[in-house]
Design a protein that fits this description.
The structure holds two protein chains of two kinds. Chain A is mostly helical. Chain A has one domain: Formate dehydrogenase/DMSO reductase domain (Formate dehydrogenase/DMSO reductase fold). In chain A, about 65% of the residues lie in helices and about 0% in strands. Chain A has helices spanning about 20-45, 50-75, 100-125, 135-140, 145-170, 185-205, 215-240, 245-250, 250-275, 300-320; strands spanning about 85, 95. In chain A, strand 1 (about 85) and strand 2 (about 95) form a beta hairpin. In chain A, helix 1 (about 20-45) crosses helix 6 (about 185-205), helix 2 (about 50-75) packs across helix 6 and helix 3 crosses helix 4. Chain B has a single domain (about 10-230), classed as Alpha-Beta Plaits (2-Layer Sandwich). Helices cover about 25% and strands about 15% of the residues of chain B. In chain B, the strands form four sheets. Chain B has a four-stranded mixed beta sheet with strand order 8-1-10-9. The radius of gyration of chain B is 28 Å and the shape is globular. Classes of the chains: A mainly alpha, B alpha+beta. The interface between A and B is large, with 113 and 91 residues.
């Protein structure tokens, strides 16, 4: 293990700021929502189908923001396609570097976009909001094994999109980012937590999906616990590199407080109710937990998921900005 | 200088023991490459350039080691001066991470950023361990020393080495420069200058630097990572992806537990709709039943 005084960084910061923060945030929500929706459809009950469709809607809509943010961040936005096509005179052809997370991520985003778009359209057709005969015929192709396989692979890409952004930061020579292996997992756990929170909030506006509130609440607790564990490991990995102060010092500690506040509903629920949403062990909302979003006042139903989502944003902000 | 031929590796040997800090290299570089430069910043030293960046492809570092109370001569250590430049690494971190293929290795074995291919993603800036590359705010692309690629193609040596009055910057075939550097450090050691050492002339630093240095102190004193810290960004690929994979497995497992819990007896019955919720547009059915 490297000693603190042995880890040297003389690198310049890349000036990845607000556009990248927004991309990381929405990529986490898009990939996380798709994965949760797929879990509902493949492993849930019939009553979870409305929540699954809601997840596919959220995944597609949040994904729309991602390429816009990425392109706007470029110094030459009109050359965004150079990420995929090499224009070097002697080397014209497709660009793909498996050892560069940015290169892998561009392709993964493109492929995931296809899955998210098809699942979005499929949800529209099944909800009878899209009635084109051609679309209805196409949806029939996604029934049975083909459909299971399709959304299963899509969920894998969704999980990748939600987490690879942390690996992208780590594959650099920047202090903090390159001193830890935890960022990929941390961003993934946080993205899933935020996705569950966003769906908990949106379920309020889709009563037919209310039966899925319980699983959303319980899974959010798992994701929050996972995130907390990874934050602890993240801090531990920074100690040998002497980078703990850079990541957690003032003023970044204030953003970390927001991150921890966002974990309170999930961790608190786990401590008080463990895996039960109600005292009786069922999942029907009752009482004061997040799970009762459907029956709680709008103010509470907005505040708790809002706090969790703010924590998701703050986590990415403090990691991106603390070294720049 | 012998004829410059494509297919041979060329580079710089920068001997900091004879650098006088005149900055002729900086001026020549700016003149030839038409770099407007930045506004000079005057501090309490002689360095008003600051650092290598998109406008400064050569930067003379002035490292002040003058003791508060002079008790003896500095032995060349009171002021350390070094004309810093892109190292044109054999294992280049910038090339490693560049997603567009804009960073290439030329026929002269130098590392070159193609300005018409780069799209300004700045991944190379995050990766370069020497703080060499920066984004040109006007052109929107990453820039650094080209080893005067255009001059080499025309059979001319780079502008900085041409202008250096003390031959602190020597240009030539890398193998010849390595031999000269080893002889130079041997001579210095024989003269009692034992602190002289070479940096990057062998493969221990990023597989070898085509622009390497004779230093008069530890590499860290010149903002150069030592051998233990000269590491490639891709070292974190495996750990990063495995960490994410482990998290994904645990997360899916957690999701499955959450769904399984719901199959247990429900105490209060299905949840009702809020008063302010809009009516659904269509009935909900399972995916396989539409």
């Amino acid at each position: 293990m490297a000693l603190a005084q042995d880890v040297q960084h003389f690198v310049r910061e890349p000036d990845w700021t607000w556009y990248i923060l927004a991309y990381f945030f929405f990529a986490g929500l898009s990939g996380g929502s798709y994965a949760i929706a797929t879990l509902f459809r493949l492993r849930g009950e019939r009553s979870d189908e409305p929540a699954a469709r809601l997840g596919y809607y959220v995944s597609f809509l949040t994904l729309l923001v991602c390429p816009v943010m990425l392109i706007l961040d470029l110094g030459q936005p009109l050359r965004f396609w150079h990420m995929m096509w090499n224009t070097t005179p002697d080397g014209v052809g497709l660009n793909f570097k498996y050892w560069s997370p940015m290169s892998v991520g561009v392709w993964a985003l493109l492929v995931f976009g296809i899955f998210a778009t098809v699942s979005f359209a499929e949800a529209l057709v099944r909800d009878q909001r899209l009635r084109l005969p051609l679309a209805q015929r196409a949806v029939r192709l996604l029934e049975g094994t083909a459909g299971t396989l399709f959304i299963g692979v899509g969920a894998l890409f969704g999980l990748f999109i939600a987490g690879y952004t942390g690996v992208l930061l780590a594959v650099s020579n920047q202090p903090v980012w390159s001193d830890t292996w935890t960022l990929g997992g941390l961003f993934l756990a946080s993205g899933l937590s935020g996705s569950a929170a966003l769906l908990m909030f949106l379920v309020r506006y889709r009563p037919a999906a209310a039966a899925s509130t319980g699983p959303l609440v319980i899974s959010e607790r798992f994701y929050a616990l996972l995130e907390l564990a990874l934050i602890v490991i993240f801090a531990l990995t920074l100690i040998p590199a002497g980078a703990l102060g850079a990541a957690f010092g003032f003023p970044w500690i204030l953003l970390w407080l927001v991150v921890f506040a966002g974990l309170v509903p999930g961790i608190g629920g786990l401590l008080t109710a463990r895996l039960a949403v109600t005292d009786q062990g069922g999942t029907a909302p009752a009482g004061s937990s997040v799970a009762t979003a459907v029956r709680t006042p709008l103010r509470t139903a907005v505040a708790v998921p809002g706090l969790i989502l703010l924590g998701v944003l703050a986590l990415r902000a403090t990691i991106i900005f603390s070294i720049q | 200088m012998a004829q410059i031929t494509a297919g041979q590796a060329y580079g710089f040997f920068t001997d900091t023991s004879v650098c006088i800090g005149c900055k002729a290299c900086e001026v020549a570089c700016k003149e030839w490459n038409e770099l407007p430069g930045n506004e000079p910043a005057f501090g309490d030293g002689y360095d008003n350039t600051g650092s290598l960046d998109s406008q400064n492809w050569r930067h003379v570092q002035f490292i002040d080691n003058v003791p508060d109370e002079t008790s003896s001569t500095g032995q060349g250590k009171a002021w350390l001066m070094m004309s810093d430049v892109c190292k044109h690494c054999q294992h280049a971190s910038c090339m490693d991470v560049c997603p567009t293929g804009a960073i290439i290795r030329t026929e002269f074995d130098s590392v070159f950023i193609q300005p018409d291919v780069c799209n300004g993603c700045r991944n190379c800036i995050a990766a370069c361990p020497y703080n060499v590359i920066a984004q040109d705010e006007h052109k929107g692309v990453a820039q650094k020393c080209t080893l005067c690629y255009d001059r080499l193609q025309g059979g001319m040596e780079p502008a900085c080495s041409k202008a250096c009055p003390t031959e602190s910057i020597q240009f030539g075939p890398v193998e010849e420069l390595q031999q000269a550097a080893r002889q130079r450090v041997t001579d210095l050691h024989e003269q009692g200058v034992t602190q002289a050492r070479l940096y990057g002339e062998d493969s221990s630093i990023y597989g070898g630097l085509n622009a390497f240095f004779l230093l008069m102190d530890e590499p860290e004193a010149y903002n150069l990572p030592n051998q233990a810290n000269a590491v490639l960004p891709q070292r974190n690929n495996l750990g990063g992806y495995l960490g994410a994979l482990g998290t994904a497995v645990l997360a899916v497992f957690g999701g499955l537990i959450a769904l399984r819990r719901r199959r247990e007896p429900v105490a209060d019955g299905p949840a009702g709709a809020p008063d302010d919720a809009p009516a659904e547009a269509a009935p909900e059915t399972g995916a396989g039943e539409d």
